[in-house]
Amino acid sequence: MNDMDRLTAEARILELREQIEHHNRLYHTEDRPEITDQEYDQLVRELQNLEDLFPDMVTPDSPTQRVGSAPLSAFEKVVHRTPMLSLGNAFGEEDLRDFDRRVRQIVGNQQVRYVCELKIDGLAISLHYENGVFVKGATRGDGQVGEDITQNLRTIRSIPLRLTRPLTLEVRGEAFMPRTAFEKLNKEREERGEALFANPRNSAAGSLRQLDPKIAASRQLDTFIYAIGDLQGVDVESHSAGLDLLAELGFKVNQERRTYDDIDGVISFINSWVEKRAQLPYDIDGIVIKVDSYGQQEELGFTAKSPRWAVAYKFPAEEAITVLKGIEVSV
Ligand SMILES: CC(C)(C)c1nc(N2CCN(c3ncccn3)CC2)c2cc(C(N)=O)c(N)nc2n1
Fold first, then answer.
1. Ligand 1 midpoint to CA 197 (Å)
2. What gap in Å lies between CA 291 and CA 147, rounded to an integer?
3. Which of 180, 205, 230, 274 is deepest in the core (most CB within 10 A)?
4. Of the candidates 87, 120, 88, 102, which has an alpha carbon nearest to the alpha carbon of residue 263?
5. CA dihedral for 154, 158, 164, 169, sign (positive or negative)
């Protein structure tokens, strides 16, 4: 191996990076691997060996650079370029019809198309890319200022270190822990006599708040990306087209979304997921409904803290019936 000259090594390194990122996208964002885990690991090992021989050829976006070594002493603060807004809530059918009426009042008698997305019960994150390379990732924080958790986010395989196009943009999404990973983690903690996490959301938040990226890397975290911010040079007309672009760029986008041209369709979608959600491999706590047209989103604008063009329908908390002093109350 040592007599491999630099040019050959460099060509092989670039080829391996392309292949590894391609298979990573197939596996983690499209859930359709073409090679076995062993073959994938072999590619990474070969790249690692070449980078060990030619350390000056290592770049931050190399697949071998996902898990940093040095634990941080603290997280830096990050001011979000565009604030990470809140979502208005809807708790029942009437709230949804009110939302629909308010939207139609403002956009007049135009056709309105709604996109319905599963509301992933995780931790909101913001990812910043420059010329297609992942440079910074942060928690939502209070919406204006979050914490720089780039080192931990780099360990999440579904977050691309390099996009399929050299775009400069910011995206928002949810980091979460799949239920099976949560149950496995709590089982290990129980065996070690450690405190258990209450739910997958808390374990995802706790994992991303670790100062040592090796711990985050061991936690099988995942992401769904759901919004584009700050995009130069690419023209998209609707939220649906934006989500298709995000998938094209290499992000993991939830495939359960549906569009409807009236609120009755939205309500039927929500009702279909009340039961089905137990079968999902991750927790959701509702459905997010968004006006699809960016033009209409523009017309609708924002209240002080949330968009007028979106609402979160929250599922009722699991009915916990407790009997107090003989009276039945549901909490
Ligand atoms: C971009 C907008 C504002 C429309 C938006 N905002 C969201 N959220 C805001 C409030 N968030 C929040 N988090 C903590 C405290 C207060 N608000 C948490 C994310 C969305 C969350 C999900 C999801 N969870 O699956 C989703 N599919 N789409 C979202 N879309």
1. 22
2. 30
3. 205
4. 102
5. negative
CA–CA dist 147, 212 (Å, integer): 15
Q: Count of CB atoms within 10 A of residue 3's CB?
A: 5
Give the integer Cα–Cα distance in Å for 195 and 200. Answer: 14
For residues 112 and 261, the answer to whether their CB atoms sit within 8 Å is: yes
Per-residue confidence (pLDDT) for residue 240, from 0 to 100: 97
Check if 141 has its Cβ closer than 6 Å to any atom of ligand 1.
no
Q: Which of 119, 187, 276, 290 is catalytic?
A: 119
Q: How does pLDDT run across 135-171, given as a tens digit for each residue?
A: 999 999 999 999 999 999 999 999 999 999 999 999 9
Q: Please tell me the pTM assigned to this model.
A: 0.92
Q: What DSSP line would sit under 30-50, residue for residue?
A: SS--SS-HHHHHHHHHHHHHH
Residue with tokens 């209450």: 198
Q: Residue 309, SS3?
A: coil
pLDDT tens, 287-328?
Answer: 999 999 999 999 999 998 899 999 999 999 875 444 444 444
Q: Compute the Cα dihedral for 227, 260, 234, 25 and give only its sign.
A: positive
Pocket of ligand 1 contains residue 100 by CB under 6 Å: no
What values do phi and psi take at 236, rounded to 5? -125, 140
Residues 82, 315: Cα–Cα separation, whole Å? 29
Confirm if 127 and 170 have CB atoms less than 8 A apart.
yes
Residue 311: which of 81, 82, 146, 94 has the closest Cα?
94
- Cα separation values, 18 from 27, 165, 281, Å: 14, 13, 30
What's the rounded Cα separation, in Å, for the pair 204 and 211? 14
**What ipTM score was computed for the predicted complex, to two decimals?**
0.98
CA 228–ligand 1 middle distance (angstroms):
12
